[in-house]
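S1.2 Input.
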Amino acid sequence: LTWRVGAFTVFPLTDYTVGLRLGVLYEQSEASTTETYISNSIKAKFKQRKIDVPVLFAFKSPRSTFMFEVGTQMSFPIKDEFKVSYTDESYKLDMIDKDYRKMLDWDLVIGFAVRANKYVGLDFQINGGFSEMYDCEKVEYDLFNLNSLSASSFMLGLSFYIL
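S1.3 Output.
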């Protein structure tokens, strides 16, 4: 489960058609999995918090309510916890404190927005992570293949326009 909240602004680069869309977003996500390893059921849970800074080029025709956007997004982790539970034991690992988590992630962002009226719009985005989130050499025990994780997502959201 993931949710985001933040603010965007658009700087026009040409009259009505091309703009630079900049934003700052707070993102919170949780994911879990269960693996069977030598007759033991092992449960893992991630909790992540981060600040996303998207820099997007926005394209639209002069009279259209439809806008296409493409660009990149930088993500700065605030919290990254990994909790593992099995049989009678559990442990929690702070990936940032252990210096396993890289302090900057990069995503490619492609999407579009449809403005329903003057104040509300509908957004669709696909974010593809092209940087690894964890430092391969530092992660000691890697049953859940942390070294190959990257952030990719599909987003459906609402935008509220104040101007």
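S1.4 Remarks. The chain is about 0% helix and 65% strand.
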